[in-house]
Amino acid sequence: MTQTPVSPTRPSFTILGTGALGGFYGSRLLVGGADVRFIARSDLAVIRRDGLRIDSPLGDRVHCPVAVYADRDPIPRSDVVVIALKTTENHRLAELLRPLVHQGTILLNLQNGLTMEEELAAAFPMARILGGVCFLCSNKVGPGHIVHLDYGAVGLAPFDERDRGLLEPLIAAFAAGGIKAEALPSLQLARWRKLAWNIPFNGLSVLLGADTDELIGDPVARRLAERLIGEVAEAAAACGCPFAEGFVTTLLDQTEKMTPYAPSMHLDYLAKRALEIEYMYRRPLREAARKGRELPAIATIADQLTYLDRRNRATD
Amino acid sequence: MTQTPVSPTRPSFTILGTGALGGFYGSRLLVGGADVRFIARSDLAVIRRDGLRIDSPLGDRVHCPVAVYADRDPIPRSDVVVIALKTTENHRLAELLRPLVHQGTILLNLQNGLTMEEELAAAFPMARILGGVCFLCSNKVGPGHIVHLDYGAVGLAPFDERDRGLLEPLIAAFAAGGIKAEALPSLQLARWRKLAWNIPFNGLSVLLGADTDELIGDPVARRLAERLIGEVAEAAAACGCPFAEGFVTTLLDQTEKMTPYAPSMHLDYLAKRALEIEYMYRRPLREAARKGRELPAIATIADQLTYLDRRNRATD
């Protein structure tokens, strides 16, 4: 039973969430010549007036005018809807997507965490679901103003292997905008590999008030990160996605060589924004539990984060 | 092979460490009529000049003059040396004790943690080792000035069961000073039971910046405390000291009914003093590991505390 993928050679895009991630990738797709619409909320008026500004080593850009919409506006149908909201907004994601998804619409999820694509597939059976993992260091510094600092590569994979044929035109669209995109052999493995970085370094950056270079450079914090990564590896293997030998060592080596970096959760915490605990910690804990695995170190930091997140926003 | 315990009916005491704990209990022993010498360091000059002041619901006292010594002074021999230093000073404990310990000297250790008595027994085979667990809420508010807030009961047990006969005159000396002291059936069990409170509530008070009432009143922090207590219970059982059924529930209920309380580690952290991580966390982890038990949640918070403690004192 095969399913013929709809594979437009020059896909059009709607970017849901015009922040540090969505604004950056949308800009690169525009630069590459794609038709791109943006959905914005708090920055809508500024972007309408002044355009979308991206400062980047790839070249500074101001897209003005730019096709930007409120989420309740009627929006032209696109081949691809890119989900670039934080997972803390996922309670309203289905509602936001409903007017954007038609038979065969490609949903490209760029969020961090686990099980987002399962939920999209359940809510939108008429859509084709892809996932992407982004290696991007980018911050929103003001309304409609994004500063891209470093990196930018994207790894893409289909949620359902029968949709693998959809990747090629997307990879081409990213490449046209100067973004190195590649097809990954397994979305689930890619998600778990990303968690192997996100779970220790996002959480510990908040709990210890430290950036990646301070954590990786301290023997005790590094050992703690390794303990957490070990639990991620165990859970990934239990869920059918074993890490290759040497993966953890490489991950730590790469982190050691990174430019000092404040993980997004640390920035969110300092700005008193909601933390992405549910999809980054609770879902991996739940999936591991379904395979009979407890992850006590991860559960410990998840509970600490939940407590601090609640208090952090309560005292705002 | 029996050993006849030396059991003076009116023992004399040297209190090593005239802080919130040693100052308080030494004062109560004085009030009860015992011969008590104090060893002080930073507060020595003030205590010599103004005496030792204890504000307490048991009655305010100023002991002036009082027998107070520097640790290098020649000190009259006492029957009992009470160890009331923080365990963060244990690297110099043997040196401090050497001039105080003679054949048959009773060493009464009132520190929190695990394995202190094993170390004393190894270093001082000519001594009789007792351990005490104190339920005391007391703070040093200035040099030689201690405020006793609440509680004060002491549980006593010998390190070597053949020394159980030593307990009675000590219990009488405490009782004469208004302190409820009782003989406990097992020192190791008492130490593990105390850790079941200290490990969660001391550590989390630092990591979450919260006092006991805030922790126990929050469902997520309480669940986290329960996870840590569960690991203590597991380790205690593996080490031959299983908790009685219902112990954990009672512990949490009692904590819930306590007056809001800043655990000593939280106060130490805020004052940028060294934290008692080694004996309160590392030794239990080590003892459990010797029995083949990993305690991943406790190891996780111990590493966090080590990192924060080091940074806290480095930036002083």
From TrEMBL, chains A, B:
Q: Where are the transmembrane segments?
A: none
Q: Which InterPro entries match?
A: 6-PGluconate_DH-like_C_sf (IPR008927), 6PGD_dom2 (IPR013328), ApbA (IPR003710), KPA_reductase (IPR013752), KPR-Related (IPR051402), KPR_N (IPR013332), NAD(P)-bd_dom_sf (IPR036291)
The pathway is: Cofactor biosynthesis; (R)-pantothenate biosynthesis; (R)-pantoate from 3-methyl-2-oxobutanoate: step 2/2
UniProt domain Ketopantoate reductase C-terminal: residue ranges: 187-305
Query: Does the record's keyword annotation contain Isomerase?
Result: no
Which is an annotated GO molecular function term of this record? 2-dehydropantoate 2-reductase activity
All residue ranges annotated as the Ketopantoate reductase N-terminal domain in the record: 14-160
Q: Which SUPFAM superfamilies match?
A: 6-phosphogluconate dehydrogenase C-terminal domain-like (SSF48179), NAD(P)-binding Rossmann-fold domains (SSF51735)
Which of the seven top EC classes does this enzyme belong to?
A: oxidoreductase
Q: Does the keyword NADP apply?
A: yes
Enzyme Commission number(s) of this protein: 1.1.1.169
The record lists the catalysed reaction(s) as: (R)-pantoate + NADP(+) = 2-dehydropantoate + NADPH + H(+)
Q: Which domain of life is it from?
A: Bacteria
Keyword line: NADP, Oxidoreductase, Pantothenate biosynthesis
| Family recorded in the similarity comment | Belongs to the ketopantoate reductase family.
Please explain the role this protein plays, according to its UniProt record.
Answer: Catalyzes the NADPH-dependent reduction of ketopantoate into pantoic acid.
Q: What is this protein called?
A: 2-dehydropantoate 2-reductase
